[in-house]
Prior knowledge:
It is a multi-pass membrane protein. By secondary structure, this protein is mainly alpha-helical.
Amino acid sequence: MDKPGARQVPIVYWSICFTLKTRFLNFFPEFFQKKNFPVNGISHLQPEKRNIGLEEELGGMAVPAALQWMNGERGVLVLYIARILYAAPISLLAESIALGILSLFALSLEISADHDHDRDPFSRFFKTRPGVSSGILLGAVTLPGLMLSRLIQMLRGLSLNEVGVAELENLQLQYWATFASCFSVLVCFHVILQRQDNGVPSVDSCSNWNKRFSLSCIALCAGICCIAFSAKYQFGWQMVFMLLWVVFHGLVASKLIQRILRTFPACVSIGEALLVTSGLVIYFGDMLQNTVAKIFGYWTSLGYLPVQYVVKRSEISTIIQGMTVGLLLFPLFLKLIFQISGHFKFVDISRERANHEMKKSFIFYASLAFLLIVVIPLWMQFVHDFHMHPLFWVLDFVFSEPLKTLSLCTYWIALIYASVTRFYNISKNSKTERILLRKYYHLMAVVIFVPALILQPEFLDLAFGAALAVFLILEIIRVWRIWPLGQLVHQFMNAFTDHRDSEILVISHFSLLLGCALPIWLSSGFNDRPLAPFAGILSLGIGDTMASMVGHKYGVLRWSKTGRYYILSLSEKTIEGTAAGITSVLVACSVLLPLLATTGYIFSQHWFSLLVAVTTSGLLEAYTAQLDNAFIPLVFYSLLCL
């Protein structure tokens, strides 16, 4: 899009921010005084939680109030949002304003949730991962920012006649569904915080101001959504149907995140749960949309479900979606089957207990086979009209180029077997720190995925889906302790866990796999940025690995951080490590671009834009305490799409 149009969105956004500036800034002094927090100091902390060295280093200078709420992670996210809004054309004005207001709403909620260092305001309702901030802002803006970046990219494709209007409008609907999911979850957390504050007496106007500001954001978000839909559909049944569809996503997300946080206590933070929830809701919603469109085809003629919102998926996308959704729903049906058959009852006699476990495992494996062979393929064939059984289609696809695919499979199997065996023995017998041991797997991801992404991208898509299915099946077996593999898988996985994993749920391997796979899957359509599919591999396999290794061995200068238990204290991340991570990614990009040019890709992105993307993702890795394998690839991918 033209540059003048691209400049108008941030001007409108910042004008809205300016109207709220005075009251928003006046909020923070009252906010910190509410809990006896002095506005210009850090002496409110207990002696063991104060950074006395920093106070001495500052020579007793007063710390500005802004430093007490604008930490490094929030500063990086402001840069992330501003970069996306700067690139947005005027045709995406409503979406851009909605993202800006959503970020302000999430920022106010995160400050409200993290300001009290003595208690967790959500502890009455659910238990989050200890030792980290809530991460509400990061969780709330990551997926909407990604969807807006994709919309900007799709508009460039539309101007080049490489993208159809149907695909663009379907992505716009998904953006508003993503926005509604994150927005509804924020409203849910706002209600929880208000319930918590109602039990705490307040003598100032801070609580009332916070309530008014949050209600203003809620009203603005709802109003912008309604205006955008009314302008597009001119008030009619079609507009009502689309609004209900978007609201449905929001309601499901607000219920699902509470279920996740209660089912998996102390496993994830609020921001991580928000990212998972919004992603699952959008993915399930897309599957439901395709299924409903297939069942009720006559809705198209009635105008309730326009045909442009049903975009035909590729065979590989359909297979991955059906397999993933089916396996995610499988534990719910399995639990129901076990409850009906009475296999949750404890048996005291050892022989009867052994028979009980064998019957339980038989039911599990029989149900899993029925799901994979019958149920999921039936859905795939229904929504996509495969000319053969989907499993046979996969075999036909694999053997269509047997030399390339089988050679690649042999290379993967040999490399994975050698690396897993080697690192597993090291983890049991060596004193090497586990965090460094895990980074070797990040390097292995580069060696495994980069050749396939350049030479066989479609086969890599399918391989990622198969790996995700295997991971899901093994995690279900581990959690349910299904004989005979349950205990073995549990012992093996414990060798590679870290502080972010728990006995209930091991998520590190999922986050690494999805961090590498999602940018590739998202780039399956129109893509004029050749480095975008490599976002996960570059940021995790190279940037994160080099940052950890260099920071661990040579790091001296540490970043300051602000968290639930610290204000202006020192982080474990070092400046040397961050600089090494950013530099290594830039070097990898300079090496990768000539290789991509030999296969026909043309680099159409300015180097300054690439530098901003790499630096922003590197700083986010340095500052965030959230699950970096999940967030950094998505943020990096969003910035590469611009």
